[in-house]
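Worked problem 6 (solution included).
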Amino acid sequence: MSVCTTEEQKAQIIAAVDSLAAQATELALNIHANPELSFEEVNSAAALIAPLRAAGFEIEEDLGGLPTAFRATYDSGKPGPVIALLAEYDALVNLGHACGHNLIGTASVTAALALKQVSQLLTGRLEVIGTPAEEEGGGKIILSDKGIFDDADAVMMFHPRDKTMVVRGGLACVDAVFKFYGKAAHAASAPQNGISALDAVIHTFNGINALRQLFTDDVRVHGIITDGGSATNIVPAYSEAKFLMRADTVKGLTVVKQKVFDAARGASLMTGARLEIEEGLTYAERNNNLTLAGFFQQNLEAMGVEVVPPPLKGGIGSSDIGNVSQITAAIHPYIRIGDVLPHTPEFAVAAGSDAGLQGMLQAAKALAMTALDLCQDDTKLRAVREEFSNWQLKQ
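Solution. The predicted structure is:
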């Protein structure tokens, strides 16, 4: 095995991605034009699987019991690392691909196809893991709990953004639905006979707002009323609100969640409305493998792509990649596709633009070259694994 990856070998990777550019563009635009919501990504998953199957990857569908999850595997037959490239492909309600998942999934598939073209350079096993429901449902959390990432030495993906950054944090988060059951009554002639479930929801919001001055700076709590009653002249017998809670760590999130739940319980006691709480999956904070991110940055910069440092404070959300990063070495770098921010109509447009497609191809090249680094250089692979092992010892 060569000590380091040569420029010639990486030039082969770049050429391979370039040869796939037209196919990748068609795939990304097809998914962009036909957005599918979490756990409903039947056509998007099939579109990503098709070129991998055609290239000879072994395909597992219904991965981890999720109908729209998959794993495509190429085994080199030589000893080496297990490297997983993650694909996302779910869209946002009413906004389509305003988080650019059409680009994420296509970049990982294109990187894998490029590596298959230079398979003589590979060692170990290469996987593309299709992870549905990042936006709503935590597909990677479910797959993590099923052990899907346990064998991976390194996990990589990219995310489009307004800046190119190889390291960015991610908050722990959890959502919850508060369901209040009251008693209907005529709001004018017999209000005394009613129990207002809507009042319970409103008191919940007021209670949470009273807590905000006591939260630490990392905490975010935001919610919506999903059911406020059916008519103004009827005391609402049922009302419902959904909240999302975030904090720097799962440990800190546990404290926040307890306070928010207690606010809802207090609202239930105040109004007499019965409360049911449906808690979602917990998204863990992100553990960035800085060594692996450094290799990714070197490959970007070798292509002339400028990488900027992340902001020192704020401006971060949450993703189920955090749960994967608790299991193995993982990175979630960002590639600039324009002056747009995720979860906006403008970002959805950018995800189908020339700039978006260019960023996707840059990402595919960097992903493939970084995977090659780990296959070709045992020293780099050990450094990545040692960083993760040292992190685990501190937990």
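Discussion: Residues 7-170+286-394 form a domain with the Aminopeptidase fold (CATH 3.40.630.10).
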